[in-house]
Amino acid sequence: MPRAAKDPDNNPDKSPDADTAMTGVRAVDRAIAILQCFTPEQPAMSVIEIQKRVGLSRPTLYRLLHTLAARDLIHAEGDPQRFKLAHGVMKLSHVWLNGLEVVAVARPIVEGLRDLTGETAALFRLQHDLGICILECQSRHELSISRGVGHSLKITQGSTGKAMLAFMDPPRQAELLSNMLANAPRTQLEETLKAARRNGYATSRGEIFVGTVAVSAPYFDHRGSVVGSIGLYGPQARISDDKIVEYSKLVREAGRKISILLGFQESEAATKSADGGSDQPNKTTRRSSNPQRS
User: Which backbone phi and psi does 180 adopt, to 5 degrees?
Assistant: First the structure.
């Protein structure tokens, strides 16, 4: 006699809450899909627009929207109704952002940059008018350059500082430049900053330590504000003009990756790239007592 097909609803091994649990998981997945369908380009949508993106029936979609609204994750306004992300999403974002530690986030990228090039790679944080070294992975070459964690310098100096200054908002940049005398050095600096903004990176030669070359690019936070830079530096004997071109691409890409990990949006990256003429999100020498340092 052929065996009767097993009725899943009468399966004695099945937990009585299994269907409810699976339905609940599916509902969570659908709710997340709704939240993720909003973009900076389309922050508000009608039910029909949302439905096209998530492929749910109208009754199911309305039930999920009602639940999300009750949790302050979705907000409806206007007539006809259009839905937007609500304040609850910002609360979650705030928790996530507060949990970010830039050194931990960036360490693999900085280490990778050092290993790929063989030169010292370092991460700098913007603090007022200073660039402070918060992470440094020193070159393994016998002749190496190191500034050291904690080393600080005015952002008008060096490639790491200029990479930050070049991508500041114009009013803040003008405020910092106003402290300099209107003389040849300031004019030269302004031209250097324009070039850095246009190219997406800054360079320096022998500016901090004699006989050194440095290449740096900025990184940005979730608001699109420059908050630091990532840089490579080493002795001029090893870093030719061709190497500078190569390293400029590497630091720009490193800055882009760090920015994204800090919540920077790729769409903002494209805008800054268009403004700056670069392809990054554009909007980072163990110190010794001898002349080997940069």
Answer: -95, 150
